[in-house]
Write a structure and sequence with these properties.
By secondary structure, the protein is mostly helical. Helices cover 64% and strands 0% of the residues. It contains four helices and no strands.
Amino acid sequence: MSFLSAVPFDKVPEDMRTMMHHYDEELGGSGFVRVFAHAPEVFRSFLEFYFPLELKVRGSVNVKITELARLMVAQKNNCHL
């Protein structure tokens, strides 16, 4: 199985560190951003695509419930971290 290491926090670009603080507040964790820090331009492109879509189609389900659902789907499909 492939494994990507997390970039040390002090090596994560400043804009991504700011995003990590938002994730910590909203979701209670942001460690995955340190993995995306290997390719920050890919992460930024993803955010440009994802957030407008997420905000448009989310409906009334809050962020924590959405994330819990994602984690359960990953678990049911044997996706391990």
